[in-house]
Design goal:
The complex is a heterodimer. Chain A is elongated. Chain A is 41% helix and 20% strand. In chain A, α3 (78-92) crosses α6. By secondary structure, chain A is α/β, with parallel strands linked by helices. By secondary structure, chain B is mainly beta. Chain B has a single domain (21-139), classed as PCu(A)C copper chaperone (Immunoglobulin-like). Chain B is 11% helix and 48% strand. Chain B contains one helix and ten strands, in the order αββββββββββ. In chain B, strands 1, 2, 3, 4, 5, 6, 7, 8, 9 and 10 form a ten-stranded mixed beta sheet that branches. The longest helix of chain B is centred in the first third of the chain and has 16 residues, at 2-17. Classes of the chains: A alpha/beta, B mainly beta. At the A-B interface, α3, α4 and β7 of A face β4, β5 and β8 of B. β7 (158-162) of chain A pairs antiparallel with β5 (76-81) of chain B, so a sheet runs across the interface.
């Protein structure tokens, strides 16, 4: 009787030891998994629709940094101003290979593949124009921290939207943003850093 | 005692009435080529070598023109029409710049696509000055705003 109790106690000690060891070995993983949520991060894998009407997976952007801007083709002022500036700054960097420029419409109701394609093609340099279903668009907006809101009714409505450009490195990691009121030299410095990261 | 005060008021009122006439001219008008889009923005600098005035409206044969303003609030760009009753101030001996990311001319329902190298005219309407015609030169989409 005493012997069985003793064996059982030893078994309990062994179980406790294994449990402690397991806890000990798992510990190094904790700090790294804890540190990620405190960093501000945007992005994530997405699938949208390109100007040919074909699915466009974000994996296609991998290997080269990219600057992504959310707007709409009926936007006469801020959107073309922003895209034109990105194209000009990329020219100053000497190569269209320096980074990719991605334009995503927040107005998929009016902007189909043909509309985003024509709009992206206006700037005389490679710009990737993307649209999507309302669900796809909503998801990407959420992942990228983009706000947009339709204002007005009828065919002539406008859309309020986040005006910053988001920059992602060649591994698809969020790096920084460019706001519309930043000067060209400040924006260029960020893009150079992006291209060399 | 009351009389001098009245006289001063009268003088002030007369001075306001006879404020120097505005002397308006427009320069550096430009817009981007549009491709297939029926919407565009036009930009122009309005100079005034006279008394203060207000820009109250815009007209163009090329589409429906309105004064709009882009404003940034918490990182979000908003665009709203400017109330024609208020208009935009053209300061005396100063200028009003309609440029990117601020007050600009919004043109909807374009009758033809805007092609780089082409131009169109825009009529600027004021509270005091006579309407002024501005030439808008169409630039490639990638063009930088004039410095």
């Amino acid at each position: 009787m005493i012997r069985t109790v003793r064996i059982l106690l030893w078994v309990a000690v062994a179980v406790a030891a294994v449990a402690l060891a397991a806890l000990y070995w798992r510990q190094p993983a904790v700090p790294t998994s804890r540190s990620t949520p405190t960093e501000v991060s945007f992005g994530g894998p997405f699938t949208l629709i390109d100007s040919q009407g074909q699915p466009f997976a974000s994996a296609r952007l991998a290997g080269r940094p990219y600057a992504i801007f959310f707007g709409f083709t009926h936007c006469p002022d801020v959107c073309p101003t922003t895209l034109a500036r990105l194209v000009r700054l990329r020219r100053q960097m000497g190569s269209d290979e320096a980074f990719q420029i991605v334009f995503v419409t927040v107005d998929p109701e009016r902007d189909g593949p043909a509309e985003v394609g024509r709009y992206a093609g206006l700037f005389g340099a490679p710009v990737i124009g993307l649209t999507g279903s309302p669900q796809q668009t909503a998801r990407v907006k959420k992942d990228f921290g983009i706000f947009s809101e339709k204002v007005g009714s009828g065919g002539d409505y406008t859309v309020d939207h986040t005006a910053s450009v988001l920059l992602f490195d060649r591994n698809g990691r969020f790096e920084s943003t460019i706001a519309p009121d930043e000067t060209d030299p400040a924006a260029l410095a960020k893009l150079r850093r992006l291209a060399s990261s | 005692m009351i009389r001098p005060a009245m006289m001063a008021l009268l003088a002030a009122a007369l001075a306001a009435c006879s404020a120097p006439d505005p002397k308006i001219s427009a320069r550096d008008g430009w817009a981007r080529e549009t491709g297939a889009s029926k919407v565009t923005a036009a930009y122009v600098t309005i100079e005034n070598r006279g008394g203060a005035d207000r820009l109250t409206g815009v007209r163009s044969g090329i589409g429906r023109a309105e004064l709009h303003e882009s404003t940034m609030e918490d990182g979000v760009m908003r665009m709203r029409p400017i109330d024609p009753e208020e208009g935009l101030v053209v300061p005396s001996n100063g200028k009003l710049v309609l440029g990117t990311g601020g007050a600009h001319v919004m043109i909807t329902g374009l009758k033809r696509p805007l092609v780089a190298g082409d131009r169109f005219s825009l009529t600027l309407e004021f509270a005091r000055a006579r309407p002024e015609r501005a030439m808008i030169a169409i630039q490639p989409a990638v063009a930088a705003p004039p410095q």
